[in-house]
Design goal:
The chain contains 17 helices and 16 strands. By secondary structure, the protein is of the alpha+beta class. It has four domains: 201 residues, 2-Layer Sandwich (Beta-Lactamase), CATH 3.30.450.40; 55 residues, no CATH class; 85 residues, Winged helix-like DNA-binding domain superfamily/Winged helix DNA-binding domain (Arc Repressor Mutant, subunit A, Orthogonal Bundle), CATH 1.10.10.10; 97 residues, no CATH class. The strands form four sheets. A five-stranded antiparallel β-sheet has the order 2-1-5-4-3, sandwiched between helices. Strands 7-6-10-9-8 form a five-stranded antiparallel β-sheet, covered by helices on one side. Strands 13-12-11-16 form a four-stranded mixed β-sheet.
Length: 470
C-alpha cells in the first residue's frame, strides 16, 4: 500500500522547517538534507539538460549498459507500458541516456524533463529515485511528496543501481517512473530484478572477453620463455599468470610499472585488449638498441639491423630524448606539431613494436633497453665539456631529411652548441672533425689560419672553404 500523498506533503513541510517527526523515512530525510545543502530550491527548480542529442548518442554508444538494454526492455517495458510508466537508464553521473515507453507517458515525462540528456543527480534536481539510488548505492523508491522539488509530487519512481561486474563500481541506474495515479505494486521488486539481470548480462560479456583475451595473449606469456609474467584485463584484473599465484587478483595499472609484494618491480606493456606484466630476472642483460642517426638513419637491436623508415627513426629519437616516456598526445606534438593526431602516432608505434617487441613499452611509451645513440653521445660529451670527444662523434646533422619538431630542435641545438664549443676552444683537432662535416665558413677559416702550411689538412680545409664561399 502506497503512503498517502497528503500526509507525505505535510511531513515534508515539517521536516524542511527543521523539526523532526515520526513517520518520515530516514533515507528520504537524509536525501532532503543533502539536496538542500546543494542549494536545490524545492519551489523553483527543474532537471538541467546537460547533453544534446548528438552527445547522448555518442555516450550511449560507449556506455557498457548498451549491451544490457535488450534484457532491460524485455523485463521492464511491458509492465511500464501497462502501468503508464517510462523506463529510464542513466549513467553514473545521473544523466538520462535512455527513456522509453508509450508515446503518451513520454509526453508527460518530457514536460518535467524526464528526458534523455537531463541530469537527475541529487545535487542537480534534489531527492528522486535515480539520484538518491546513486547517492546511497542501493534500490530506492521515491513517492509523491518525498521528492524535494514540488514539480514532481505527482510522480512516483523506483530505481536500482547497476554495478560493473569487473570493478564493482556503479555505472548507472535503471528506473521506472510514472504518474502517481498509475503506480504498480510490483515495480520495486521488478526494477531490482532487472538491475541484477543487467549485471548478469554484463558478467557474461566480461567472461567472454576474458576468454578471448586469455586466448590471444597466451603467445605473450609463451614469449617470456620462463620469465615470470601475467596477462591482465584493461582494469588490471589478473587473467593468467606464470607461475600460478604470482599476483593477487588485481593490480594497479595506472603507472608504467608495478611493485610486487616481494619487492620486485614488474613492467607493464599494453597488448591486445589488456596488459602483459613481466618480471625481469635480476642480472638479466638489457637489450642494446643502437641508433646511428647523425647523417643517416640506421639502427640495430642486439646487433641485428633494424630497417627503419624516417618516421620510425623520428619516433625513436623522441623516445631516446625522453627516457621516462611520452604519451601518444605528446609524441604527436613532437612529431607533427599542433596538427599532430595521436591515433596516427599509435598506429606507427604499433608497426614499430613489431620490430622492437618488448623493448617498446606503453603507458607511457618508452624504451626498455640500453639505448646507445650517436646523437646522445654528442649531447653527453658537450654537457661534460668534452668538446673534442663531441666533435669526433659528430658525423653529420641529426636525421637531415626530417622536419619533425623534436628532431629539428635537437639538430639545431647540437650543431649550434658544437660549433660554439669548437670555435671557443680553438682546438685544431676539434675544428677539423667538425669542419669536415659542417662545411661551416667560419670554422674552415679558423682551420686555415691555425694549421701550418706543412700540414696537408690545411689544403683540404682551404679547398672546402673555397667551395663553401661559391
Amino acid at each position: 500500500m502506497q503512503p498517502d500523498p497528503r500526509r507525505l506533503a505535510h511531513l515534508r513541510e515539517v521536516v524542511l522547517s527543521g523539526e523532526r517527526v515520526r513517520g518520515t523515512r530516514e533515507l528520504i530525510v537524509q536525501s532532503w538534507r543533502r539536496s538542500l545543502a546543494a542549494r536545490i530550491d524545492p519551489d523553483r527548480h527543474e532537471a538541467p539538460v546537460v547533453l544534446g542529442p548528438d552527445e547522448v548518442a555518442e555516450r550511449r554508444a560507449a556506455h557498457p549498459l548498451a549491451a544490457a538494454l535488450p534484457v532491460l526492455r524485455e523485463t521492464l517495458l511491458g509492465i511500464a507500458d501497462e502501468a503508464q510508466h517510462v523506463m529510464i537508464v542513466t549513467d553514473a553521473d545521473g544523466t538520462v541516456l535512455w527513456c522509453e515507453g508509450s508515446r503518451s507517458v513520454r509526453g508527460l515525462a518530457e514536460r518535467v524533463r524526464l528526458t534523455e540528456g537531463a541530469c537527475w543527480a541529487e545535487d542537480a534536481i534534489g531527492t528522486n529515485a535515480m539520484g538518491t539510488a546513486l547517492a546511497v548505492g542501493g534500490p530506492v523508491t521515491v513517492h509523491s511528496a518525498e521528492h524535494l522539488v514540488r514539480t514532481y509530487h505527482g510522480w512516483t519512481c523506483t530505481a536500482s543501481p547497476v554495478r560493473d561486474p569487473d570493478t564493482g563500481r556503479t555505472i548507472g541506474v535503471v528506473d521506472v517512473s510514472g504518474p502517481l495515479t498509475s503506480t504498480h505494486p510490483a515495480l520495486v521488486a521488478l526494477v531490482s530484478a532487472a538491475a541484477r539481470l543487467a549485471e548478469g548480462r554484463l558478467r557474461a560479456g566480461l567472461a567472454a572477453r576474458d576468454e578471448r583475451l586469455r586466448s590471444v595473449s597466451a603467445r605473450h606469456l609463451i614469449g617470456l620463455r620462463g620469465e615470470p609474467g601475467a596477462v591482465l584485463d584493461p582494469s588490471g584484473r589478473v587473467l593468467a599468470a606464470e607461475p600460478h599465484g604470482l599476483l593477487t587478483s588485481r593490480v594497479d595499472v595506472s603507472g608504467g610499472s608495478v611493485r610486487l609484494a616481494d619487492g620486485r618491480e614488474a613492467v607493464l606493456e599494453q597488448v591486445d585488449e589488456g596488459y602483459l606484466l613481466r618480471v625481469p630476472r635480476p642480472g638479466v642483460r638489457r637489450p642494446v638498441l643502437a641508433l646511428r642517426f647523425l647523417g643517416d638513419a640506421k639502427g640495430s637491436l642486439d646487433g641485428r639491423p633494424l630497417p627503419l623508415s624516417l618516421r620510425h627513426a623520428e619516433l625513436l629519437t623522441a623516445l631516446a630524448l625522453h627516457p621516462r616516456g611520452l604519451t601518444a598526445e605528446r609524441l604527436a606534438l613532437h612529431l607533427y606539431g599542433e596538427r599532430g593526431n595521436p591515433t596516427t602516432v599509435r598506429a606507427e608505434l604499433h608497426r614499430l613494436r613489431a620490430q622492437l617487441g618488448a623493448v617498446l613499452l606503453t603507458r607511457p611509451y618508452r624504451l626498455s633497453a640500453d639505448v646507445r645513440g650517436d646523437f646522445l653521445a654528442v649531447r653527453d660529451a658537450l654537457c661534460a665539456g668534452e668538446v673534442g670527444a663531441a666533435a669526433a662523434a659528430y658525423r653529420g646533422e641529426l636525421l637531415p631529411r626530417s622536419e619533425a619538431p623534436v628532431v629539428r630542435e635537437e639538430r639545431e641545438d647540437l650543431s649550434a652548441a658544437l660549433r660554439r664549443g669548437v670555435l671557443d676552444r680553438g682546438d685544431v683537432e676539434a675544428l677539423w672533425a667538425f669542419g669536415l662535416v659542417a662545411e661551416d665558413v667560419t670554422v674552415l677559416e679558423r682551420l686555415v689560419a691555425l694549421l701550418p702550411r706543412t700540414d696537408p689538412r690545411r689544403e683540404v680545409a682551404a679547398a672546402r672553404l673555397r667551395r663553401a664561399l661559391i
